[in-house]
């Protein structure tokens, strides 16, 4: 099945960790399809190297360098940068059919049967079930579809600010046209759904095949104690992630991904998130009231249920390094609002 592939997207090193775990989970469950990771220009070299070991193909998508319609579209709508990057998956025309999976998903069993479905197949979004959730979908790469998507995006924008809005506008008859294009919910199970209908989760949850860590808190935002095999900073707040799936993610990360990362980073410090490894050279930064997860905008309305994150994601040393490399997190923790708030606190 060399002409079919699972495709994911990582726009920064955090999402790259997600992509590594997703890729490993697909391999563990013995997929017969190729694995493709699209990466943005902010993914650093060691992370790219690790992805290259897990994926058959790692493709850099730098829209600013591209000479196609997406470049022009990006000039007009810089706010839709991540969305355009994701839509780029339609240009993978050396594959006849693909399954896109967000980097914040995890497979729990083999899901190769998804390739029996047609474009565009996806599961309902738990927030508005007449919309599909764009975290997992089946599609057919086509330059023509790609051009049409970019055109729609540039002309009409996105009703939720991300790719999910654009894709639902484009495949607008999904809700009613063909039930075969409705993936069962077990192919895109999110924590929000678990807690909003717990009896259904108790009845059907064991059938889950794909977990989607929807929302602002992602598995990599927590830390993990490898000795006790426990995730730190996880509360029982219903808006947070389901503890069993979170543990599963960390089990794969600490069990197989971390050693690959250590090898690639060498003596270079990086934030592992694992507490027994002593790779961290600095303590995490003091808690700043901020929204540092704005980098994932594609879920739009689904994210309104979440609470502020309890745990910092990168060490202050790593943050400083990023600043010095010109990679400030302008949309998140280094946003102008946060800098202004910090300055205000000094002036008061
Ligand atoms: Mn997602």
Automatic annotation (TrEMBL):
Subcellular location: Cytoplasm; Nucleus
Protein name stated in the entry: glycogenin glucosyltransferase
GO biological process terms on file: glycogen biosynthetic process
GO molecular function, one term: glycogenin glucosyltransferase activity
InterPro entries per the UniProt record, alphabetical: Glyco_trans_8, GNT1/Glycosyltrans_8, Nucleotide-diphossugar_trans
Gene Ontology CC entries for this record: cytoplasm; nucleus
This enzyme's EC code(s): 2.4.1.186
Pathway listed: Glycan biosynthesis; glycogen biosynthesis
Function recorded in the entry: Glycogenin participates in the glycogen biosynthetic process along with glycogen synthase and glycogen branching enzyme. It catalyzes the formation of a short alpha (1,4)-glucosyl chain covalently attached via a glucose 1-O-tyrosyl linkage to internal tyrosine residues and these chains act as primers for the elongation reaction catalyzed by glycogen synthase.
Organism: Anguilla anguilla (European freshwater eel)
Cofactors, names only: Mn(2+)
Annotated family: Belongs to the glycosyltransferase 8 family. Glycogenin subfamily.
Chief location category: cytoplasm
Keyword Transferase tagged: yes
Catalytic reaction list: L-tyrosyl-[glycogenin] + UDP-alpha-D-glucose = alpha-D-glucosyl-L-tyrosyl-[glycogenin] + UDP + H(+); [1,4-alpha-D-glucosyl](n)-L-tyrosyl-[glycogenin] + UDP-alpha-D-glucose = [1,4-alpha-D-glucosyl](n+1)-L-tyrosyl-[glycogenin] + UDP + H(+)
Record carries keyword Lyase: no
Keywords tagged on the record: Cytoplasm, Glycogen biosynthesis, Glycoprotein, Manganese, Metal-binding, Nucleus, Phosphoprotein, Transferase
């Amino acid at each position: 099945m060399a002409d079919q592939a699972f495709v994911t997207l990582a726009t920064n090193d955090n999402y790259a960790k997600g992509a590594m775990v997703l890729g490993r989970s697909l391999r563990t469950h013995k997929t017969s399809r190729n694995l493709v990771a699209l990466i943005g220009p902010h993914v650093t070299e060691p992370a790219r190297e690790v992805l290259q070991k897990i994926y058959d193909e790692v493709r850099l998508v730098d829209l600013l360098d591209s000479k196609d319609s997406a470049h022009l579209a990006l000039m007009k709508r810089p706010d839709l940068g991540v969305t355009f990057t994701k839509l780029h998956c339609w240009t993978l025309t050396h594959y006849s059919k693909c399954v896109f999976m967000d980097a914040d998903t995890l497979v729990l069993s083999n899901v190769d049967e998804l390739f029996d479905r047609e474009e565009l197949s996806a599961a309902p979004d738990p927030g508005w079930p007449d919309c599909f959730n764009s975290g997992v979908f089946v599609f057919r790469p086509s330059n023509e579809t790609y051009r049409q998507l970019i055109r729609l995006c540039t002309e009409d924008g996105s009703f939720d600010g991300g790719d999910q809005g654009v894709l639902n506008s484009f495949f607008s008859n999904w809700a009613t046209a063909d039930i075969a294009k409705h993936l069962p919910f077990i192919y895109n199970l999110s924590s929000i759904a678990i807690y909003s209908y717990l009896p259904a989760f108790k009845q059907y949850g064991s059938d889950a095949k794909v977990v989607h860590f929807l929302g602002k808190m992602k598995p990599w935002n927590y830390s993990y104690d490898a000795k006790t095999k426990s995730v730190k900073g996880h509360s029982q707040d219903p808006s947070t992630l389901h503890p069993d799936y979170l543990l599963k993610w960390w089990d794969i990360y600490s069990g197989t991904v971390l050693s690959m990362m250590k090898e690639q980073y060498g003596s270079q410090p990086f934030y592992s998130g694992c507490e027994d490894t002593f790779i961290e050279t600095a303590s995490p930064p003091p808690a700043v009231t901020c929204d540092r997860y704005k980098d994932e905008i594609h879920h739009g309305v689904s994210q309104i249920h979440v609470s502020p994150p309890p745990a910092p994601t990168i060490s202050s040393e790593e943050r400083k390094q990023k600043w010095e490399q010109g990679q400030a997190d302008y949309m998140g923790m280094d946003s102008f609002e946060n800098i202004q708030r910090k300055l205000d606190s000094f002036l008061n």
